[in-house]
Amino acid sequence: MDVNNLPESTNVSEVGRGSGYAPRGGGIRVGAVGTILAVVVGLFLGVNPLQILGLLSGMGSFSPGTQTSNTSGPVNTKDPNNVFVSRILGSTEQTWSGIFKQLGRTYQPPQLILFHDAVDSACGQASASSGPFYCSGDEHVYLDTSFFAELSQRFGAGGDFANAYVIAHEVGHHVQNQLGISDQVMQAAQQGSDMKGANGLSVRQELQADCFAGIWGSTAQEAAHITQKDVQDAVHAAEVIGDDHIQKSARGYVNPDSFTHGSSAQRVKWFMQGFNSGDINKCDTFNTKSLN
Ligand SMILES: [Zn+2]
Known about the structure:
Structural class: alpha/beta
Number of strands: 7
Shape: globular
Order of helices and strands: EHHEHEEEEEHHHHHHH
Number of helices: 10
Strand order of the largest sheet: 2-1-3-7-6
Helix content: 40-55%
Largest sheet: 5 strands, mixed
Low-confidence stretches: 18-62, 64-69
Radius of gyration: 17 Å
Bound molecules: zinc ion
Strand content: 5-15%
Oligomer: single chain
């Protein structure tokens, strides 16, 4: 993979080490299920479970935000990770602007906040151990790039395209937000639809974000010189962060009732479905009987 032909986004900012970020806009609900899961699995895991469970999720481990005097600034372009993130985000902007145009809509890209150690979002305060996340309350993607090293060292899932997939997945949640899907999910949940479980709305929402990440990969394939090996890296990342894999390595058995992101096989399937088709209509995880 070569990101040098991808356009840099102007929607990335960085908050300094040890400082958070005071978001605009109001707060939204803290993901109670995610927090409980993180605590429960934390009892079983030797490694940092919050990071795994917060991974690719809007439901990280948040404490109520403390409104500190945080300011964001321009990105340190000397850090190659930051430039990488900026180019991947810029590429997702191209992808989704084009697709939204076809739908007769205008894509409003998210802001991406690079942070170190801790950050305040409209979803509460998060630490680096929360992993990357999207907060629909302020429409920002939050990322501590030290996570890339974790992904590679702890989970053996490195590679540029694997890292890009993580960003594209979070952007996928923003696309869901823009398309009104996130609101529909929240409404359905309030009306009693199941959020949890192997067929719950949460898994469907996550798998759709994987499919959307695949769509980005598909449209960026040529410009970014994405190879078969790159795709394998992303698939491997999708595998190791599937719920069943995490649960199995955590406690030796799998309990589909507590799935929030989907199984490894499902995550790979939906990512590849987006990647191979490049078609948003192929990502309707909500009206699919079997997610497998
Ligand atoms: Zn997610």
